[in-house]
Automatic annotation (TrEMBL):
It comes from Amylolactobacillus amylotrophicus DSM 20534. SUPFAM superfamilies: FMN-binding split barrel. InterPro entries: Split_barrel_FMN-bd. This is FMN-binding protein. Gene3D superfamilies: Electron Transport, Fmn-binding Protein, Chain A (2.30.110.10).
Length: 123
């Protein structure tokens, strides 16, 4: 995973999750501080209380785009760096990853697991 991306993820800000197959596209938000990044597995673990629209879309196509950014990290044109993260997603409600996230966020019903396929720095 990109070092600049990992630096961005150390800061707080909104994270927007978009699927492409909804009509219209499904869009949900969470906080960057809720996202657990695993650079070795190239995965993101995101606690989900709702996200029903995203979950429903995955039955047809589990392609997802996530946007993150912060003005606290130097970007390509000055203060502020942001990324588009592309991947394939699925939800889990059991297992080690779920239990670890549930211990941090007691309010979750599932965990959205994103297998990152690509990312691009946008600013």
């Amino acid at each position: 995973m990109d070092e600049k991306f990992l630096e961005v993820m150390q800061h707080e800000g909104p994270a927007t999750i978009v699927t492409i197959n909804g009509n219209p596209a499904s869009v949900v938000n969470t906080w960057m501080s809720y996202i657990e990044v695993d650079p070795e597995r190239k995965t993101l673990l995101i606690p989900a209380a709702g996200m029903h629209s995203i979950e429903g879309d995955f039955a047809k196509d589990n392609t997802v785009t996530i946007t993150v950014g912060t003005k606290e990290v130097e970007g390509t044109e000055g203060p502020g760096a942001g990324f588009h993260v592309y991947g394939k997603g699925h939800f889990i409600d059991a297992g080690e990853d779920f239990e670890g996230m549930k211990s941090k966020f007691e309010w979750i019903r599932k965990v959205l697991v994103i297998d990152v396929t690509d990312m691009a720095q946008k600013i």
